[in-house]
Design brief:
The chain is α/β, with parallel strands linked by helices. It is built from 15 helices and 17 strands. A 5-stranded parallel beta sheet has the order 4-15-14-13-12. It has a 4-stranded parallel beta sheet with strand order 5-6-10-11. β12, α9 and β13 form a beta-alpha-beta unit.
Amino acid sequence: MSPDPQAAFGFETTQQCARARAGVFSTPHGPVETPQFMPVGTLASVKSLDPDDLTRLGATMILSNAYHLRLRPGDELIRTMGGLHRFMQWHGPVLTDSGGFQVFSLEGLRKIQEEGVEFRSHLDGSLQQFTPESVMRIERNLGADVIMQFDHVVPGQSPHDLAQVAMERSIRWLERCRTEFQRLLVDDPNAPTPVQALFPIVQGGIHADLRVASARAIQGVGDWVGYGIGGLSVGEAKPDMYAMLDVVDAELPTDRPRYLMGVGFPEDLVEGVARGVDLFDCVAPTRMGRTGAFFTSTGRRSIKNAQWRTDPTPLEEGCQCAACTRFSKAYIRHLFIAEEILGLRLLSLHNVHFLVALMREARAAVMNGTFEGWSRDWLARYHSSKTATP
């Protein structure tokens, strides 16, 4: 008899304020209070941050990427090392993206067929193939708690016909993912995480009818622990993204977590929570930290600006991250200008902490019944500065 992911996972909404929810997502590696931002450890490492850093700043669930880990160091190697949790010494829940976005971003290096995608590795040019079945086996070896289906991703502004082709193929691939996923639960009981949850992904670009069709078709394929919302924040305008979240919110079950994939700018997190989203991830906080940008409650800033040269204040007044409680803007700017690695680390740490703490604030506002007013005031303040770094 196949193990039942529904018994190992659960989602309980503890409070709701309009469409925003505060909940708890239960997993084999512990509970996740939602809404929650998941730091991205693409290659089994959140760049420049130690797992202990993530624990101290309050992160409870992180993400890694099946495409990158398949190519380096290899999912089989990670399995022999006990799976992702033991390999990277992170003991909380892990989610792995299937690599669909990465594969389909390899323009000129990949060939899409119904069977799957053939592509050239960006590392050494070797010929690789991802199919729904092979991706399920890769994610089984990695041992994440939540694994994502292999889907067909297209640019955000794709015309209706292209978005429809990708959406319909994603549904067909989901059926194949589910079949292989269920087989592996029975035939591979000694995987690093024996019971995993497979999330489907709602696609459809910026076309409301396709989003509705995708959400309904996915629910027709099976009973899911949770749902991914993909194909957003890939070039479309922000109002279009928010409009699609409104559409999807009306179609998905309210008793399962929703994960908005690859979205991680502060304003988008707040707007997403307002539209019923529970989980978010993005490489933006660490990528921005490596280029000198940092989040504040009144917009983004650049530590490279000369105005911080003698500034004794922290990156953000009142922030409790390890960077802000110990160091000044002047010092961090000096590190960055001098190309000291600590500067990149401190900005990355601050940015990840900012988003994790923001979701704690959002959760508290939902629990208190004040989310609508809180979010309105927060967004007004965040957008108030005319000098925010784009």
